[in-house]
Amino acid sequence: MSNLRLPERPGEVIDRGTPLSFTWNGKSFTGHRGDTIASALTANGVEVFARSMKYKRKRGIMTADHWDPNLFVQVGDEPNVRAGSRRLEAGMQVSAQNVWPNLNFDVGTANQVVGRFLSSGFYYKTFMRPKWFWHNVYQRVLRKFAPGGRIHWETSTHGAYDKRYAHPDVLVAGGGPAGMAAAVSAAEADAKVMLVEHEPELGGHLRWGDADDLAALAELRSAVDAHPNIEVLLDSTVTGRYDHNWVAVMQRSHDIAPERLVKARVGSLVVAPGLIERPYVFSGNDTPGVMLSGAARRLINLWAVKPGSKAVVLSANPEGDAVIADLEAAGVEIVAALDARAGDDIAEVKGSGRVSKVVLGDGRTVDADLVVTATGWTAPTSLLNMAGDRPVYDPSAARYFPNQVPDNVLATGGITGNGSTAELAAHGTATGTLAANRALRLRHARRAAASRARSPEGPRPEVLEDTRTPLARVPHPECYLSSGANAKKGMVDYSEDVAAKDLVQAAGEGFDSIELMKRYTTVTMGPTQGKLETVNAAAVLAKARQMEMVDIGTTVWRPPYAPISLGALAGRIFEPVRRSALQDWHDAHGAAPLLAGQWVRPDHYGDPMGEALNVRENVGIIDVTPLGKLDLRGPDVTKLLELVYVNKWQKLDIGRVRYGTMVAEDGVVSDDGVTGRLGEDHYLMTTTSSGAGAVWEMLEDYLQTYRPEWDVHVTAVTGGLTSINVAGPKSRELLLRLVDGVDLSPEAFPYFNVRRGTVAGVEDCIIWRIGFTGELSYEVHVPSGHALHVWEALLANGEDLGIKPFGVESQRILRLEKGHYIVGQDTDGLTKAPSAGLGGLVKLDKPDTLGLPELKAAYERTDLPVLVAVQPDDPQLVPTEADQIVDGDSNRILGRITSSRMSPTLGRSVCLGQVDPSLAAAGTSVTILLVDGRRTTGTVQEHHAHVDPEGVRQNV
Amino acid sequence: MIVVPCPNCGPRNSSDLRPCGEITSRPDPATASLSEWRTYLYLRENPAGWVTETWYCRSGCRRYFTIERNTATNEIRDSEVS
Amino acid sequence: MAKHGYTYSAGKLLKHGLSSGAWPRMWRRPEARSSYDVAIIGGGLHGLATAYYLAKEHGITNVAVLDKGYLGGGGSGRNTAIVRSNYLTPEGVAFYDRSLDLYNTMAQDLNLNVMFSRRGHLTLAHTDSALRTMHWRAEVNKLQGIDSSVIDEHEVKKQAPSLDTSKDTRYPILGALYHPPGGIVRHDAVVWGYARAADHLGVHLLQETEVLDILCEDGEGPEGKGAGGRVTGVRTNRGDISAPAVVNCTAGWASLLSNMAGVTLPITTHPLQAAVTEPCKVFLPTVVVSGSLHVYVSQTDRGELVFGASVDPVGTYRVNGTLEFTEELAGHVLELMPGISKMRLLRQWSGLCDMTPDYSPVMGTTQVDGYFVDVGWGTYGFKAGPVAGETMAETIATGRDADLIAPFHISRFTEGDLVGEKGAAAVGH
Ligand SMILES: Cc1cc2nc3c(=O)[nH]c(=O)nc-3n(C[C@H](O)[C@H](O)[C@H](O)COP(=O)(O)OP(=O)(O)OC[C@H]3O[C@@H](n4cnc5c(N)ncnc54)[C@H](O)[C@@H]3O)c2cc1C
Ligand SMILES: [Zn+2]
Fold first, then answer.
1. What letter does residue A856 receive in the DSSP assignment?
2. What pLDDT, in 10s, does the model give residues A915-934?
3. CATH class of C117-181+269-355
4. Which end of chain C is more exposed for a tag (fewer CB within 10 A), N or C?
5. Residue B4 CA: which ligand is closest?
6. For residues A14 and A304, what is the distance between their CA atoms, to the nearest angstrom?
7. Looking at residue C420, what DSSP letter applies?
8. How far is A775 from chain C (nearest CA, A)?
9. What is the mean pLDDT of residues A194-222?
């Protein structure tokens, strides 16, 4: 293969001393450190990098940077790598993607032949009949043609990425002359500055400029380097500006993570991204060998690569003129130097796989292998759009300019106008000073606003007026569409294969606003995000509608400014799992883990039925720490309880515990639990595990916003107290061996009472006598630091009593045998208090309680579903939870099974269910539809409790 | 990520707080008619403009407080800090 | 197709390809009349479908659809186009299933390929209680003849091999609700299909026409608005238009318009965001939803992954999107499919959702005569567009709420009879 590497160039970025070998489609090549994949391949004579999406046309280098639509390649397991910006590394395995069977021969090229039938939106207009054809045949074919690289499953990098927060006063997006100057002046004004540059070096367009440019660059760069207030992030892209100047930066130059997301709360954002060169629309404008002036200059000056041998240049601006000198210096013969300002034009380019002939505007045809165009600029206003700006088109300068941006966003450099390097830098300097002033005023205000933050230093800076002299808008011809007869065949969107004629057709069909046109033709929707295409698309539309560009508007540029990998956005995984102080013990003793909300819990220790039976027969202990626990103190706690529970709380003596249900303001059951009175003004409230956070916030809400005069302090102690339920007929006997300072006799410590005492030598434990399992049981709340000691003491002292730990599954069995419902399982988002069978618990004569009017209304209704206990008539059949209760053989739904288990105590299946009121009477037979479609019957029970409805066992 | 000024903790990322929506005033449950009550429960002005709304300083001081925010622009009134 | 119809077919494609002749416009840009029989506010799917069925089924063609921007510029052009009927309540299931039927024959009915792809829809369960809710939905679905069942993690892996179904993840996949007829559709095509068909039947599509006020008389509120009154027309940026029937189909903006008629809605507006990656070779055959992880994903025929989530917590009319949405999204998607960490997010966007307390719409007549609402579509209204159009047209033509939408009448909020869809609609869309 040919070697197109030039002799050393003054500004080149390659390290000729470090060769790097890599492969391209399986063949070995060598490049240098500093090369991009594309520059290395071009230096080796590679001309075709990809095939286009729809017509499979061969594509070559066009912008030679990150936005190049023709340089998407697969590198190892990474798809869609931009060969125009990705640095070459030794050993890279690079291949063309989206070609079949290979790059040189692709069967999809047949589409070129039928291309005339594949006009805009063609797929909307056909394949409708027969119906199966679309689904079974065409859609599958279409999917085969999906562009892009291949995902490799086995090599996830999830979790390897890092993130960073930053708080710069001024963040400068763009390290060209204006951006560098802005950074320096802002830093000099005492602002903390972050300067972010997309490319691996500072300098912007100066990097591939002439000797003067390089000299200016060196000076600016040393000023930046010299300033301690400036942090420079290279190879990093500002990808988004969100409300309140929340700015995202994707840093690709970090040593540890492959990409790092930097999230910056920025005082002032300075937008200095320069300009993006615009392709020119003519027939054949996507032939390899057609490139933009920036690409030619970058290839020659940065990587010392000769882009061709015989060139036609079409120039409408000084940058285009400069490329001629560069080409000549590189030994490229200039076949035609066309000046668009003088009316010169390119009509058409011919050649397959490489430019061979160029038809000029004047009708001449010349031989050439390279066409370089410099027909104008697109202002990359994305960040300004994201800040609310709607840039306005200026026909005299042939580009868009910023219009109105908020005070905390400032634009400078080429995006705002033209100028010499000195003028750009001067504008940047003034912008930096202004940005610093605004940022420092904000910093001062923020510090002053936060009572707990550092106080601001010194007085607030005075407002600096914006006295910047705007950069000039140098006239530029409007070069969009060539005058050639076939110009409309020219590509507007390279990645989507959308030609000008497709846009014209769409406009004719009624898709005549830029947004509709975009959706119909997919123009600007591809991976280059419209950076190269948007303005050309608007120009074609304007022409088709015979309107002015100004009246067309543009599509809104949406974040991110450059695509970001999902791994980097995700960062590391911070999804904590909560563990009780006993979870290690559970793990060590064979507990099956159960993820329940944030918690991991022991589901069982191997034999849930046996563990449950042991509770009925002997004694068991279970870790119920996730139970929400709120410590309530103050003289007005009773009032709070009256407000948030449906029942009455006035007469709760010290040492007593009461069960309560909560409903929301709409009368729907929201939580339940017990609350005990520990002292005159001291209570402990428990909530469901999943509702713990919400109940806490709800209490605070009513205390702070509704009854701020009430004196109540709420402290969450869920994790601070480890909760152990000791349940079973022998539980008292066990505790008698371990508890000091509490009289455990049934007379002194009856059901629904609470005491404080010492357990296994641990002082100040809270013990309450309640019974979710229906057995005699005590719930012991132990300061978590001592929890393991108490747990082990219980086990050791209970050995002869037959003690066994039990898990959540056994508890579910036991509670269902006992008929206790679980909020959220046996109730749902519409279950009002009467449905839950709360009966006498609810007190409607209170002056104020949550949802009171709804409760009153609900109690007048007779149509609400009712929660009942159901026993299947086949005692060995356990319906699945959520099986439907239906009306006989019909499909009419009359309720559903909400909980079901095999009861080890009764040796039969037991259920709770919600049923239509017509089925609620005890003894009613209901039809249950099983998952497999069979129907079975069950009988509604008198009580919710299947076991011990009188409550004898828990009252002993 | 907007910045919400907590009167205690100062300017904070909104993810530190929980938005609780338009302020509503709770009718007296003892005397409110069902229709008044359900208006309070469900109906919202939902304007595109300035609203007074409640926020809860969930990861900070746990205070509920109100701010005025413009739902068309996310600007927060009388706050120079965001 | 009636009136100025033009039928698309493969033959026409051939003919135009050979002759390079211009295709006709899909719809006109008509001059507005000063009065219409029905003025529909909102040129999204709901407004357009309502207009189409008014003309097609009820012969009411003196109809205008007014939109402040371009057709489909609201939620209808921003959604992720998941179509399914495996809802939780019998009311919901019946309603959405009718819509699915309409989607099934839409390409033929509207003579435009809307690319409905019934590729199957998986709602993952990561907890026992989620699995229970899936069972509940499956059972209710089956009773109404809907293809819906709970499958285990092995079956999930078969349906979507890219999912990580190992046990040692933070959110292990225990199973899923599988709904084979669910899928995705090309949302823009659906909008254009209805627009084109309505236009052909004589409906006026008035783009860039913003309704500034709804004109009323005899109501109890100021300016004759509110309960007990009736509508007389609308005021727009292009002048007044009189109409005895005005329909609010403005989704995210519904409250603003309804306040103009003196009818306060049970709605708050929240942004819903979505994002798309760069394309890569197709590997994900089904739609995958995870409620616990607040995320869903599908892959287009072009190879892009389309992601969505639940609504933003902060209510706002701004649609510029947030960074945290993309961070959370990526984190959660990679929990499900760690292998796609190197795929890149290409674009994010946001649309407005009109959220109701019970995740069900507000539809039909209101306390103001002649003022109809078809709002409260939240995050799930695209799939409902066809049936909403059909039932709204019937309601407007007859003055009586159609049976299928009776459960969604605004009075449920004063009667306290909410619909229980929250569990099924919150993330699934
Ligand atoms: C990101 C996202 C993803 C979604 N995903 C799904 C999904 O997968 N499945 C699903 O079923 N649903 C989904 N939805 C919801 C769905 O998009 C909406 O419910 C649906 O599009 C609503 O349609 P519409 O016609 O009622 O409203 P829209 O399409 O929003 O149309 C309302 C129209 O009203 C116009 N308008 C507003 N104010 C005025 C005025 N004053 N005068 C004139 N015109 C006005 C607007 O310009 C707009 O065009 C999603 C939504 C979003 C934002
Ligand atoms: Zn605070």
1. H
2. 999 999 999 999 999 999 99
3. alpha beta
4. N
5. 2
6. 8
7. -
8. 26
9. 96
Q: What is the DSSP string of C350-415?
A: EEEEEE-TTS--EEEE-SSBTEEEEE--TTT-TTTHHHHHHHHHHHHHHSS--GGGGGG-TTHHHH
pLDDT of residue A160: 83
Task: Tell me how close the Cα of C321 comes to any Cα of chain B, in angstroms.
Answer: 9
Partners of A371 in the beta sheet? A290, A312
Residue A159 phi, psi dihedral angles, 5° rounding: 95, -10
CATH number for the region B3-81 comes to 3.30.2270.10
Record: contact C70-A388, CB cut-off 8 A: no
- Check residue C429 and give its pLDDT: 53
pLDDT of A453 > 70? The answer is: no
Domain borders along chain C are 30-112+187-265+358-425, 117-181+269-355
CB contact under 8 A, B3 and A705: no
Bridge pairing between strands C230-236 and C239-242: antiparallel
Superfamily for C30-112+187-265+358-425? FAD/NAD(P)-binding domain (3.50.50.60)
Which tens digit of pLDDT belongs to each residue from B34-71? 999 999 999 999 999 999 999 999 999 999 999 999 99
Nearest CB to B46 within list C269, C324, C357:
C269
How many Å separate Cα A222 from the centre of its chain?
Answer: 39
With CB atoms and an 8 Å threshold, state whether A857 touches C18.
Answer: no
- The CB of C80 under 6 Å from ligand 1? The reply is yes
Ligand (nearest to CA of C185): 1
Q: How far apart are CA C372 and CA C393, in angstroms?
A: 10
| DSSP letter for each residue of A627-666 | SEEEEEESTTHHHHHHHHSSS--TT--TTBEEEEEEE-TT
C272 CB less than 6 Å from ligand 1? yes
**Residues A600-635 pLDDT 10s:** 999 999 999 999 999 999 999 999 999 999 999 999
Q: C361 near C408, Cβ under 8 Å?
A: yes
Asked if residue C78 has its Cβ within 6 Å of ligand 1, the reply is yes
The answer, yes or no, to whether any atom of ligand 1 lies below 6 A from the CB of C103, is no
When CB atoms are compared, the residue of B21, B45, B71 closest to C317 is B71
Shortest alpha-carbon distance between residue A563 and chain B (Å): 20
Ligand 2 centroid to residue A718 C-alpha, Å: 22
Question: Which CATH superfamily includes the segment(s) A162-275+381-449?
Answer: FAD/NAD(P)-binding domain (3.50.50.60)
- DSSP for A84-128 reads TTSBP-TT-EEEE-S-SB-SS-BGGGHHHHSGGGS-TTGGGSS--
Classify A480-573 by CATH class.
mainly alpha
Q: What residue spans define the domains of chain A?
A: 15-123, 162-275+381-449, 279-375, 480-573, 607-815, 865-956
Kindly give, in sequence order, each residue whose CB lies less than 8 Å from that of residue A444, ignoring residues fewer than 6 positions away.
A456, A460, A461
Q: Which residues pair with A145 in a beta bridge?
A: none
Query: Residue A840 burial by CB count (10 A; 0-12/13-18/19+): exposed, middle or buried?
Result: exposed
Q: Please name the fold of domain A607-815.
A: Gyrase A; domain 2 (3.30.1360)
**B62-B67-B68 Cα angle (round to 5):** 160
Which among A663, A620, A641 has a CA at the least distance from the CA of A852?
A: A663
Candidates B37, B46, B71, B76: best to mutate against C (most CBs of C within 10 A) is B46
CATH 3.10.20.440 fits A15-123, yes or no: yes
pLDDT score, position B79: 56
Residue ranges of chain B whose CB lies within 8 Å of a chain A CB = 1-3, 5, 8-11, 13, 18, 20, 26, 28-30, 32-34, 37, 40-41, 54, 56, 58, 62-64, 74, 79-82
* Contacts B14 to C, Cβ<8 Å: 314
Q: Does residue C324 carry a pLDDT above 80?
A: yes
Q: Which residue has the tokens 């008198």?
A: A942
- The dihedral built from the CA positions of residue C217, C222, C226 and C227, taken in this order, carries a sign that is negative
